[in-house]
């Protein structure tokens, strides 16, 4: 089983920055895709950004140009640098790690990001 732990959330003013980190641990695992998702009360969890083991990234339109996803494969860690934050970015941010071939997907417990106006 792969254990996923996020960190780095908090309270920031609009226009500010935060950096989220997500570390994965376990035994004998290989991660294909890592990603960040977010969820607000009453809404479905939405994709924010993903990155493959080869470094291919994808972003939801609302964060393009403001957020940057990166990963350290040696450390099984993924990061989300969030700049120019807006109040609408307020959500619980979840990290996901998966291997489609091995057919597993693991989620972290989430970290709260609050952007004040």
Order of helices and strands: EEEEEEEEEEE
- How large is the share of residues in beta strands? over 45%
Distance between the first and last residues' Cα:
40 Å
Number of DSSP-assigned strands: 11
| Helix percentage range | under 10%
Q: Provide the low-confidence segments as ranges.
A: none
Structural class: mainly beta
Number of helices: 0
- Mean pLDDT comes to 95
Report the radius of gyration as a whole number of Å: 14 Å
List keywords for this structure.
117 residues, mainly beta, four-stranded antiparallel β-sheet
Mind explaining what this structure looks like?
By secondary structure, the chain is an all-beta fold. The protein has no helices and eleven strands. The strands form two sheets. Strands 2, 4, 5, 6, 9, 10 and 11 form a seven-stranded mixed beta sheet that branches. The chain is globular, with a radius of gyration of 14 Å. The model has no long low-confidence stretch (mean pLDDT 95).
List the SSEs and their pairings.
Layout: E1 3-7, E2 10-13, E3 18-25, E4 33-39, E5 46-52, E6 57-59, E7 67-72, E8 77-82, E9 91-99, E10 104-107, E11 111-116
Parallel strand pairs: 2-11
Antiparallel strand pairs: 1-3, 3-8, 4-5, 4-9, 5-6, 7-8, 9-10, 9-11
């Amino acid at each position: 089983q792969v254990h996923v732990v996020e960190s780095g959330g908090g309270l920031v003013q609009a226009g500010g920055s935060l950096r989220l980190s997500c570390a994965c641990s376990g035994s004998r695992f290989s991660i294909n895709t890592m990603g960040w998702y977010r969820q607000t009360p009453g809404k479905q969890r939405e994709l924010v950004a993903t990155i493959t083991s080869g470094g291919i990234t994808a972003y939801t339109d609302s964060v393009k140009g403001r957020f940057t996803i990166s990963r350290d494969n040696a450390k099984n860690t993924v990061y989300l640098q969030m700049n120019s934050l807006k109040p609408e970015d307020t959500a619980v941010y979840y990290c996901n790690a998966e291997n489609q071939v091995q057919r597993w997907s693991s989620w972290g417990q989430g970290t709260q990001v609050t952007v004040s106006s």
